[in-house]
Amino acid sequence: MEREEVNRREMRSFLMPRDPSIDRRFRPRPNKQLRLFDEVLVETSDSSTDCSDTESEYTKTGDEGGSIDSEIETGPQVFLRLRPVESPSKLYVISDCGNVLITSAATNEYSSNNVNRMEKHYSFTNIFDSQVGQRDIYDKCVGPRIIDEECVTIMAYGTSGSGKTYTLLGDSVRAGIIPRALEHIFTLYNKQVYTAAKLKLINARMVILEDDVTIKEMQIRRQLLALCPDMQAQHQRLKQVIHGDHEFEEKPAEEVSVMIWVSFVEIYNELVYDLLTLPPRQQNLEARRKNLKIVCNKGQVFIKGLTSIFVRSSEEALKLLRLGQQRLTYASTAVNTNSSRSHCVFTVDVLKYHRTGMTTQNTYKFCDLAGSERVDKTGTIGSRLKEAQSINTSLMVLGRCLDAASSIKKKANADVIPYRDSKLTMLLQAALLGKERLAMIVTVTPLDKYYEENLNVLSFASIAKNILFKQQLVKQHNTRYSLFAEYSQTGESADREYISQLEAQNISLRAEIDRLNYDIVLKLQLQEEKLRKELTDTFQTTIHTNLKQCEERQEKKIAMLNREFEAKIASIKRKYEEQIEDLQDEIEELKSPNSDIEIIDDE
């Protein structure tokens, strides 16, 4: 009897199923199998205490003692920012330690999936609630990377309208991450910034430019800056705010020349477009956007034909950023009235030339990912639907790349990272492969109606949190020594100003020559068109005159022929009339009684 009761209890029933907490299929468990005892042994062997899995990241190789191995494994930093809302949902709770977000949905109102209704814990490097401002976010996410002079990729990821673009750009009062980073970079290298574009990154290789190429680069720079909106007052206001929030240190003057270049690209419907191209010279021609190609050569990734602009100050870089922002693709959806329909990447390349002949490259990439969308909530149709499909596809490939990167150290037969499946992952493959530092800022809107979308974003972030990379060295290139480095350190300020004036005058004169040549060519073209038109008009006039004269001659000839034939007809008519009269006279004579001719009747 007892066995029968036990078997009866174990029988499944669709009317009275097991509780989700009892059924092993719905028990909370980690997505990946972790060997916890190995981590415990590693922690006990280390002398450091109270350190998380990300607090020891981004340590430089070759520090004091030189005992740090280059095989140290680190991972990306993942930050969470909660957008300020009027009534935050109670479904999102920050733990007491401050770096774990707890989500749970007790009812079916917010999620139809049993797994999503369970309580979940998401760990982050830091969690920024609605009270945290732009200053603290910059100090935690970007500031240390610039101070350490490391290559880093900053990605802003989240749902549509959750504050990704605001975090990166800010507004006219509260500066975002990118304006603060630009001000930080130019303050850090204030005494080392070189005034001419002598060193450039071409096809992922540093090249020392010749004088004529340098002048051409400076002309392109002047032309693009002339197209930018005036931001002097706004830049001064932002500069005061930034320097009021931060105390950026300035590096001492060393035998180093620093040249800073910026570029801006957009990935729209899996097509790469340059946002800093020069418009056509003729105003009536519409600028056609050219699809660029991403090239991978010997482990280096670059965009073929991308415009990179040399900048001397943070104001110039910010102007170019605003110019490219005006050329981005925006549209209105049901979730966000000004939604970005593409991914965009703003790159700052810091090239340093040392007197010893060694060049160092520091690259800072700021990636604003388009929001992950659900078509049923955004209400996209037509071209908006195609854009949403491209966005979701590229984000899905990015998630696959992060998942593959996180599983490489756990599985010996793990798949290769599929970064070639999307243009976005191809462009960011240096960060996905661990060659650059990676920091992700995840933005979430803590409202009930976005619960399922937020869970997808948080799951995406948890995958990135599990990645482990081997620490990489700073990129260095050995090249020949150039005399322009001597001037940057030994020249006096007065000589620098004079030479800068001469360079500016030279550039302006060359630009004036190009303008005059263009005007001359344009005038010659207009004159040629005018002469062609005059010749055409002359030929048409001559043809019309000849045609008219020919018609007049034909009319005269026809009139003469008419008169001639009329005279002939008149003479013939008179002749026959005379013959008729003669015949009539003969008839009358015959009929007269005095006639001698006898008329004989037939009877």
UniProtKB/TrEMBL annotation:
Swiss-Prot/TrEMBL keywords: ATP-binding, Coiled coil, Cytoplasm, Cytoskeleton, Microtubule, Motor protein, Nucleotide-binding
Q: Where in the cell is it found?
A: Cytoplasm, Cytoskeleton
Q: What is the native source organism of this protein? A: Drosophila hydei (Fruit fly)
Q: What is this protein called?
A: Kinesin-like protein subito
Give residues annotated as binding ATP.
158-165
Query: Which stretches are annotated as coiled coil?
Result: 562-593
Which protein family is it in? Belongs to the TRAFAC class myosin-kinesin ATPase superfamily. Kinesin family.
| Source domain of life | Eukaryota
**Swiss-Prot/TrEMBL GO biological process terms:** microtubule-based movement
The signal peptide annotation in the UniProt record is none
The Kinesin motor domain sits at: 75-467
Please give the chief subcellular localization of this protein: cytoplasm
Any single Gene Ontology cellular-component annotation: nucleus
Q: Which CDD domains match?
A: KISc (cd00106)
Region annotation (Disordered) maps to 45-71
Q: Name one GO molecular function term.
A: microtubule motor activity
Could you tell me which InterPro entries the record lists for this protein? Kinesin-like_fam, Kinesin_motor_dom, Kinesin_motor_dom_sf, P-loop_NTPase
